[in-house]
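[recover] target loaded
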């Protein structure tokens, strides 16, 4: 630094230091130099943080102080050591604008930053942000219910808004549940109570899908280990449930009042040639005090005692997903979204579909590393479809 430059810069520093209280910034100014080349004045700082901070906070003060000390109004460039890149007066104006944006309320600030990012993306030839969001990759969304859209009788954060937004975008939605103790109509009504638009035809329950399978395969009369919902679904498609008639299949759903004697009777039908069919193979379902025994417990008892392998309709087997996709072109992009790696993610894999796991915990699929059905993506909630 020349003597004249040094003298001017020392006078500038005296005035600026009076404005500064932060020790780290005091240190930065100690190692800041001024170079004068005709009407171009370059201020070199020790690092990029110092140059950015000087530009944001003290660019105008530096100009005013230099004018007061030297009578000059030069073009000022602020650079950091080792960099040829300079920040000119015009670029400094941008920093001033950004500082003003930072003072706006959060919602307005985020909106403005979003507009800036979109403009930059467009200049780089990137598609609009909406087209880069995860939801834009798919045309059809298959949703598990409990743990994804609601828990019990409470909608999960972001689920109602996300589903509404998908419909606004013209996406096709299906709801799939392994729960055999309900009907499509009841599920649709529950979703509506929670604020989610849904129709009966968009819902696939394991009881409904099992009844359709029985009809498709030509079963005329079956023995049910289930409650009234599976029985009702069988009646709708003309499948008989007369325990005193000829039993062609034993169908396992769920009923908390089933006794061991009922299971023994079912085993007897299987010994005499009846097929073993199950709505699903879930070993547990969520209870208020923890997991409770489910369909899979009864199914495993029958499988072990009869040595007969069951036909299973629910996830992770593909029949239910195939039912959900009936009438939908195979050429559309479809994704399964669920919270259970063993049923939802594995079910998508078995149906040849990508899957998104809803979870805020590391995946533990209970399988060897080589056998893991890895989700295509992981999200904390459905709102992440739009980020």
């Amino acid at each position: 630094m020349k003597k004249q430059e040094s003298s001017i810069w020392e006078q500038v520093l005296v005035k600026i230091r009076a404005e500064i209280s932060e020790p780290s910034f005091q240190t930065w100014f100690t190692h800041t130099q001024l170079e004068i080349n005709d009407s171009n004045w370059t201020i070199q700082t020790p690092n990029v943080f110092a140059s950015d901070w000087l530009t944001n906070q003290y660019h105008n003060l530096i100009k005013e102080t230099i004018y007061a000390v030297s009578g000059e109004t030069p073009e000022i460039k602020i650079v950091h050591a080792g960099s040829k890149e300079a920040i000119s007066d015009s670029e400094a104006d941008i920093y001033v604008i950004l500082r003003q944006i930072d003072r706006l309320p959060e919602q307005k600030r985020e909106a403005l930053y979003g507009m800036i990012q979109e403009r930059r993306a467009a200049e780089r030839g990137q598609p609009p942000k909406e087209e880069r969001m995860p939801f834009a990759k798919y045309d059809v969304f298959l949703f598990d219910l409990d743990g994804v859209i609601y828990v019990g009788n409470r909608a999960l954060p972001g689920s109602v808004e996300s589903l509404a937004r998908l419909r606004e975008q013209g996406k096709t939605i299906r709801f799939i549940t392994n729960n055999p103790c309900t009907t499509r109509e009841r599920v649709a009504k529950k979703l509506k109570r929670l604020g989610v638009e849904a129709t009966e035809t968009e819902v696939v329950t394991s009881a409904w899908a099992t009844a359709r399978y029985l009809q498709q395969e030509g079963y005329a009369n079956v023995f049910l280990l289930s409650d009234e919902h599976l029985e009702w679904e069988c009646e709708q498609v003309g499948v008989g449930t007369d325990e005193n008639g000829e039993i062609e299949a034993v169908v396992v759903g769920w009923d908390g009042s089933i006794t061991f004697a009922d299971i023994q009777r079912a085993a007897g039908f299987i010994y005499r040639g009846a097929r073993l069919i199950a709505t699903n193979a879930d070993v547990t379902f969520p209870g208020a005090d923890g997991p409770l025994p489910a369909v899979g417990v009864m199914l495993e008892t029958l499988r072990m005692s009869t040595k007969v392998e069951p036909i299973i309709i629910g996830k992770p087997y593909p029949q239910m997903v195939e039912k959900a996709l009936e009438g939908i072109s195979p050429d559309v992009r479809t994704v399964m979204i669920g919270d259970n790696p063993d049923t939802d993610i594995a079910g998508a894999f078995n149906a040849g579909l990508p899957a998104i796991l809803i979870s805020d915990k590391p995946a533990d699929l209970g399988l060897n590393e080589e056998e893991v059905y890895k989700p295509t993506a992981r999200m904390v909630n459905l709102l992440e479809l739009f980020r």
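[recover] notes: The chain has three domains: 3-123, 135-178+317-386, 206-312.
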